[in-house]
Amino acid sequence: MPTEVGRSNKALDSSDLRVSERGMDHVDAINQVFAEFEFAYHNQFHKAFADLESLTIAKKYWLSNVEEYSPSHIVAAGKKLIKSREYLPSIAAFLMECEKGYELFGLPSVRAAYAEVCGASSPKASHDWSHEAVYLAGKATGWFLLANEPERTTFPLFEFNYMQVVKKVMTGQDLMVTPPVALKERVSNPTSKGLTKERLAKLRSELGL
């Protein structure tokens, strides 16, 4: 079950610093980021968050600012900051790192991608997508579902599908997008008027009209 936003009373060990991506939610992600910050910036961390109340308030504030990112993205941003910064990162630095995760690959955020699939014109395959990952995530979620179900139902599904595609983009995997089949400008064998009448007459006869 998701853990409450706040300080854990357990001693830190490797299991505390790693939450399985499967079943992880945003609260789990923030708790893991703060646990890793505490480990990496021990003295700075305890000076910034001297008591349980200040730590809980900080976690809730960070949580409210990172909801548009997936839990795995949040954890990845925290790890990257730890590797590149000597001092405890601010929320502004953390959000900048989250944004770069998408911008480096030309990807819109989850929220922006969701808004794009919901407002895309038809046919979907011919729409001018900001990135093919958005189209593939929309297709995987289902265009009918996106058009007819409420956001509380469709957004979690889209977020999951989008992050699966984003992972492929970020790891250099090719995205398989099937191009739409072009319609022929002219029918090659048009049916003659006489043949059309014969078919209609036969149909009427079969139906007893």
Would you write up a description of this structure?
α1 (26-40) packs across α2, α1 packs parallel to α4 and α7 (132-141) crosses α9 (151-170). The protein is mainly alpha-helical and 209 residues long. Mean pLDDT is 80; it is low at 1-20 and 180-188. It has 10 helices and no strands. The chain has 2 domains: 26-103, no CATH class; 106-209, no CATH class. It starts with 25 loop residues before the first helix and ends with a helix. The radius of gyration is 26 Å and the shape is elongated. It has helices at 26-40, 42-48, 52-65, 71-84, 91-103, 110-119, 132-141, 143-148, 151-170, 193-207. The longest helix is centred in the last third of the chain and has 20 residues, at 151-170.
**Cα shape:** elongated
Major β-sheet profile:
none
Structural class of the secondary structure composition?
A: mainly alpha
| Strand proportion | under 5%
Beta strands, count: 0
> What is the rounded distance between the termini?
67 Å
Radius of gyration, in Å, reads: 26 Å
Q: Which runs of at least 5 residues are low in confidence (pLDDT < 50)? A: 1-20, 180-188
Number of helices, where a helix is a run of at least 4 consecutive DSSP H or I residues: 10
> Percentage of helical residues?
55-70%
* Average pLDDT number: 80
The number of domains is: 2
The secondary-structure element order is HHHHHHHHHH
Task: Report a brief summary of the structure.
Helices cover 59% and strands 0% of the residues.
Describe the secondary structure blueprint for this structure.
Layout: H1 26-40, H2 42-48, H3 52-65, H4 71-84, H5 91-103, H6 110-119, H7 132-141, H8 143-148, H9 151-170, H10 193-207
Helix pairs in contact: 1-2, 1-4, 4-5, 6-9, 7-9
